[in-house]
Design a protein that fits this description.
mainly beta; four-stranded antiparallel sheet
Length: about 100
Amino acid sequence: MKAVIQTGGKQYLVSAGQTLNVELLNSAKDKVEFAPLLIIDGDKAQIGKPTVEGVKVKADILGEAKGDKIKVLKFRNKKRIKTLTGHRQRYSQIKITTIK
């Protein structure tokens, strides 16, 4: 069984036992629930309007992780101005436990 969940403005196709990095979750708990947008069970598919009723996707929060560092260079031509900044995105690692 697979499900499509939405978190952090992005949608993910998940199945039970899968581990993935999502946008940082501001949750003090170690468990989180998602309302699925789509459920795929073999040949059957249930499409939600906007979510599928009566189905929850449960996940455990494993911890936080950091992505790769991105360098941003801003350059103004003929002004002799350049600015180099960096950014490193933080993610939450979650493991999907059940879809029911």
